[in-house]
Amino acid sequence: MTTTTSSAPGETLEQTAYRKVTWRLIPFLFLCYVVAYLDRVNVGFAKLQMLSDLQFSETVYGLGAGIFFIGYFLFEVPSNMILHRTGARVWIARIMVTWGVISSAMMFVTTPTMFYVLRFILGVAEAGFFPGIILYLTYWFPSQRRARVVALFMTAIAVSGVVGGPLSGWIMQAFAGMNGWKGWQWLFLLEGLPSVLMGVAVFFYLDDRIADAKWLTADEKRVLSENIARDEGGRAEHSISQVFGNPKVWLMAGIYFCFIMGLYGISFWLPQLIKAAGVSNVLDVGLLTSVPYGLAAVAMVLASRSSDRTGERRWHTATAGFVGGIGLVLSGIFGGDVVLAMASLSLATMGILSSLPLFWTLPTGMLRGAAAAAGIAMINAFGNLAGFVSPFMVGSIKDATGSTTSGLYVLAASLVLGGVLVLLGARSASATLPAGVSPSRG
Q: Which pLDDT belongs to residue 285?
């Protein structure tokens, strides 16, 4: 991957530096997150064949899909603290190689116990990746540039849906029976290997800090470093115990939990919801899942640009949560009509995915240093417990009622609650922060 080195006409040194950093880091990190997210949620596609082949119930699937996040939760903070000490290059590479190997090993699952164990270990292996990248971006970009940068990185969720849906459907259909393996076994194998390759690439490609970047000039490094120092000027280093005892950090964790409930409701159940609307062919299901994610990618970038341009965070974040909740309610109401269900699911996906990069402007504007490493990891770890609750809850409700509709309404209520908490709580984020810590704008 190359980095643009020449200045555009009329471009300042600062603009040139940030353009180079953006082109150097974001496409590469974006690609890493695409393969990461595929490994995390391809179980949603495997489910279309796996449950009948292995005689698993919806509850078994929901528990297995969600137990990933228990391992993720337990090792998130330690993993991010290691990254802060050792640097992103070594630790992100380790994370990606180990999770790629474990994800591929999912092809050997034959019992519920094996399913649970491998999903749990996959969560342990991946712990620290996402909050590590969020922390890593704070080393390069000041807070006023962060929403659009995080959004560009997080559109990988949407793109993994655009690419992963058709790809997963094609693999399961085209490779079924080859070498005596089922389509879902080939899915785990073929989508796990790219993570290993990307992990190796991380080790050779990433630079831990601005000072390490040989592709920047001395003047560009100076400008970037001064901006980071100025951005952190009003924020002091604080102990990890202060972070864990801070009620506003816990509020951020609660808000993120509400939004993640909606995210994994979509991520793990979207193929099933489309199938329930009347689409039976697995390749067609895969192709249709790309529609909501494609629209969401556009919405994420536009919403984040608007937030950075205006400096307003709270209403942008809350509105995205409200839109996601409305979309889920409508998808429950129109679940039997393919066109209306797709429109509703698209609205839900646009709102849910747009809320995430907007949300991360709030906690990253509060903390720095080791406190940021611990705080971001804690918020992400607690929030991602919703990844356990959401699929298990929806699966249990479907087993009990034969329908996912009630589960969708619960997820919608969670998104609305998250939006309300942003409006009520985020404004006063500085009220109980330790002295010297300031919230982001808006």
A: 81
